[in-house]
Design brief:
Radius of gyration: 17 Å
Structural class: alpha+beta
Largest sheet: 3 strands, antiparallel
Number of helices: 3
Strand content: 15-25%
Helix content: 25-40%
Strand order of the largest sheet: 1-2-3
Order of helices and strands: EEEHHEHE
Number of domains: 2
């Protein structure tokens, strides 16, 4: 059960926050399982990431500045230079 940005684990009384960085560093096998499950859900179109804007890699500095200003709803996606910026 997800509660306020964390997980209430069975048999526990406290909320444990979920951190992808922590999981990747300390529990790489769990990270791989979560990543595979996430990508499967996306492929099945059961989830759709909220993408605010796509930028070519050459404009990474501008993308970072936009993030630094705040107010961005969704993710900023960097695509290889010369790739289509159209939504997928």
């Amino acid at each position: 059960m997800c509660i306020a940005g964390g997980w209430l684990l069975p048999g526990r009384k406290r909320v444990v926050p979920y951190s992808i960085q922590w999981l990747k560093r300390l529990r790489p096998a769990w990270f791989r399982q979560d990543l595979i499950a996430l990508l499967d859900l996306r492929e099945q179109q059961k989830i759709k990431p909220l993408i605010a804007q796509r930028f070519p890699l050459a404009e990474a500095r501008h993308a970072r500045e936009l993030l630094g200003k705040g107010g961005v709803t969704g993710k900023i996606v960097l695509v290889p230079n010369g790739s289509s910026l159209a939504a997928r």
